[in-house]
Each structure stands twice: as structure tokens, then as C-alpha cells.
């Protein structure tokens, strides 16, 4: 048998740790699970666990992310109306609740929200990840046949996600409370709400300044996984948005302008927050597949740039959770760049 390279051995150890943690969390729950027990299950040392993950919470996020990413793709969703799409979303949601399935996967995630809420480090990024969910779902709703030019469907998606997250929390805290079919009907009824864009994030009138790079400057798209797609990211013209985890919802400006967009998610805490981002994006991908047909989904690709490779290609070395840089790419070349609040809207226009 050929000798494994160092990187291959590290990848194998990481997979063993994740598998062992899944068993430990399923058997004892997140709070009672112990790193020493996970190391024993993986037949590795405690130090090997900590060399791959900063702590138990990041490992928990990674387990949930791996499970969400492994959900098999099904046939394209059928939805001709906003009501249909909301019904699809709600049915997919309640089918995963422990109230109705009692599977290991549904039980594993019961403590997620409590762990996110326990720390400011995770609360703000999680809020932006959920806003990103609403942006993507809401823009998909706006493309449905009966949307009729309604522009407030991002807020409608926020209302639906509020209802469904609340349902999930009650299913965890009060098993047997409520009827899942009532949840589906309530979510469908939201289609009749008339919500506008008055509460949409304000953009400065002047926006972030736009720079015009050297016209010979090419854009290099590194090999990366598209977390909303089914494979590797392909180069494209349009907008590349490099956004910290406190700025993710700002990608809406590029999408509303009609550009095919790649969102590179960056953070100052990649070991802790990148697994949370991968988890949320895998769940969003699963929701989209079961909610709306592919032709209605926004032209958005998302990369979790935890190594900063894509960001460095854009000339960014210092990354934070408030990073906001956007590039406009045409014919494989960078034709415009903007840095700062409102960058996506500036280059999109």
C-alpha cells in the first residue's frame, strides 16, 4: 500500500474525528459529549482533535455541515406560485423535525440554536447567514409566475423562516406541541401578505467609490466548491463579492441588478465560523432544491473562502468579518472594483 502524504493523513484523521464526534453527539448530546471520548472513538489523541478543530462547538458545526451536505439531491421542485413554494419549503422543513421523524440527523441538530445564541461570536454571523437565506429564497419567489413584480418577497421569506425556525425550536423544547400540517398551511397563508421594501438595508447615496483597474488585469478564479451548486465553481462574467460574515446580505444588491454573482464568504475566525457557514449553506441548498425550480433561482454561487485564496486573488490580505469588496468581471477581466459599505451595489451599477 502506498504511503499516505502528510495532507492525505491529515484529511483522513479529520474525517475520523468527524465520524467519531457524530457518534458521541448522537449518543450523549452536545452538552454531555467529551473531547476525550471523541478522541478515543477516533483512536487518536486529544491533541490531534484540537489540531483540527479549535473546540467542541466548531466540531459540532462541522458534523452538522457534513450531514447536511450529504443529503441526496432529488428531482427538481415543482412550484408555479409563491404559495406553492412556501408550501414546499414548509413541508421540507417539518419533515426533518424530530416530532415527525426521530432520526439521528434530526436529533443531532437539536442543540444548534442554543449554541449559536450563547456567544456573540456566532450570533452576528448566524444572523447574516439567515438573512442570506431570506435574500436567496425571496428573490427566487419574485421570479415565480404569480409574483407579479412584487419586490417585497425577501421580507416574506424572512417571515416564513421566522415561523419555521420557531416551529423547530418548539419541536425541540416541547415535543408534540402543534400540528405540522398547520405549520404548512400557515406558511402558505403568508403568500397573501403584502410586504414592501421599506425596511430594506439602506445604502449610502454615494456608495463605495468605484475604481477602474488596468484593463489588462485578468481575473483568476481558483478551484473551489460552489456550496449552492452541485460541483466546482466555474469562471463567469458578472460580480465577485468578497464579504465578511457580518456583511453577507449585501450581495442582494448585485443579484437585484441581474448579475451572475459569486459570493466569497470570509471571516477573521475561519476555524470556528467556516463550519457554521458551510452548515447554513448546505441547508439553504437543500431548501432551494425542494422549494423552487432551478430556472427561478438567483444566479448565485457561494464559496466559503476559509483559506483566503479567492480573497488574495483580489488583492486582499487582511480579512475581517466586515470585509466588503466587489469586482465586476467582463470577458475574464476586472473592469471595476469597489471596497467598503455598498461595494456590491456600486460595481453592479
List keywords for this structure.
6-stranded mixed sheet, Arc Repressor Mutant, subunit A, alpha/beta, 2 domains, 349 residues
Mean pLDDT: 88
Number of helices: 14
For the largest beta-sheet, the strand count, sense and barrel status come to: 6 strands, mixed
Number of domains: 2
The value of Rg in angstroms is 21 Å
What is the total tally of β strands?
Answer: 6
Helix content: 40-55%
Note the overall shape.
globular
- So what's the oligomer here? single chain
First-to-last CA distance: 57 Å
Order of helices and strands: HHHHHHHHHHEEHEHEHEEH
Read across the widest sheet, the strand sequence of neighbours is 1-6-5-2-3-4
Structural class: alpha/beta
What is the percentage of strand-forming residues? 5-15%
Query: Low-confidence parts lasting 5 or more residues at pLDDT below 50?
Result: none
Outline the structure in words.
The protein has helices at 6-32, 35-42, 46-52, 56-69, 82-94, 104-108, 112-117, 120-142, 153-173, 180-189, 252-256, 270-291, 309-313, 343-348, and strands at 210-211, 238-244, 261-266, 300-304, 324-330, 333-339. It has 349 residues and is α/β, with parallel strands linked by helices. It starts with 5 loop residues before the first helix and ends with a helix. Helix 5 crosses helix 12 (270-291). The protein folds into two domains: 6-69, Arc Repressor Mutant, subunit A (Orthogonal Bundle), CATH 1.10.10; 82-348, no CATH class.
Amino acid at each position: 500500500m502506498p504511503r499516505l502524504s502528510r495532507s492525505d493523513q491529515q484529511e483522513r484523521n479529520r474525517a475520523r474525528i468527524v465520524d467519531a464526534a457524530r457518534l458521541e453527539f448522537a449518543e450523549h448530546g452536545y452538552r454531555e459529549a467529551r473531547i476525550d471520548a471523541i478522541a478515543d472513538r477516533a483512536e487518536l489523541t486529544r491533541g490531534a482533535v484540537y489540531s483540527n478543530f479549535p473546540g467542541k462547538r466548531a466540531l459540532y458545526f462541522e458534523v452538522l455541515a457534513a450531514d447536511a451536505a450529504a443529503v441526496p439531491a432529488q428531482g427538481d421542485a415543482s412550484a408555479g406560485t409563491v404559495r406553492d413554494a412556501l408550501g414546499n419549503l414548509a413541508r421540507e422543513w417539518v419533515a426533518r423535525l424530530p416530532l415527525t421523524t426521530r432520526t439521528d440527523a434530526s436529533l443531532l441538530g437539536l442543540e444548534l440554536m442554543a449554541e449559536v445564541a450563547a456567544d456573540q461570536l456566532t450570533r452576528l454571523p448566524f444572523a447574516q447567514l439567515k438573512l442570506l437565506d431570506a435574500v436567496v429564497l425571496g428573490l427566487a419567489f419574485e421570479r415565480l409566475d404569480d409574483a407579479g413584480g412584487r419586490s417585497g418577497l425577501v421580507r416574506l421569506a424572512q417571515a416564513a423562516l421566522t415561523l419555521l425556525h420557531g416551529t423547530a425550536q418548539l419541536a425541540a423544547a416541547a415535543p408534540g406541541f402543534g400540528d405540522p400540517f398547520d405549520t404548512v398551511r400557515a406558511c402558505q397563508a403568508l403568500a397573501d401578505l403584502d410586504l414592501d421594501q421599506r425596511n430594506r438595508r439602506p445604502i449610502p447615496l454615494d456608495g463605495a467609490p468605484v475604481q477602474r483597474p488596468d484593463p489588462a488585469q485578468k481575473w483568476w478564479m481558483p478551484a473551489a466548491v460552489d456550496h449552492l451548486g452541485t460541483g466546482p465553481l466555474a469562471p463567469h462574467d458578472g460580480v465577485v463579492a468578497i464579504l465578511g460574515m457580518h456583511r453577507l446580505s449585501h450581495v442582494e444588491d448585485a443579484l437585484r441588478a441581474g448579475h451572475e454573482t459569486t459570493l466569497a464568504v470570509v471571516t477573521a475566525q475561519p476555524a470556528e465560523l467556516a463550519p457554521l457557514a458551510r452548515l447554513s449553506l448546505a441547508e439553504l441548498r437543500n431548501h432551494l432544491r425542494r422549494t423552487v425550480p432551478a430556472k427561478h433561482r438567483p444566479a448565485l454561487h457561494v464559496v466559503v473562502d476559509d483559506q483566503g485564496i479567492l480573497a488574495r486573488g483580489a488583492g486582499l490580505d487582511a480579512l475581517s468579518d466586515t470585509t466588503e469588496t466587489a469586482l465586476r468581471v467582463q470577458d475574464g477581466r476586472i473592469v471595476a472594483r469597489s471596497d467598503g459599505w455598498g461595494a456590491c451595489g456600486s460595481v453592479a451599477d
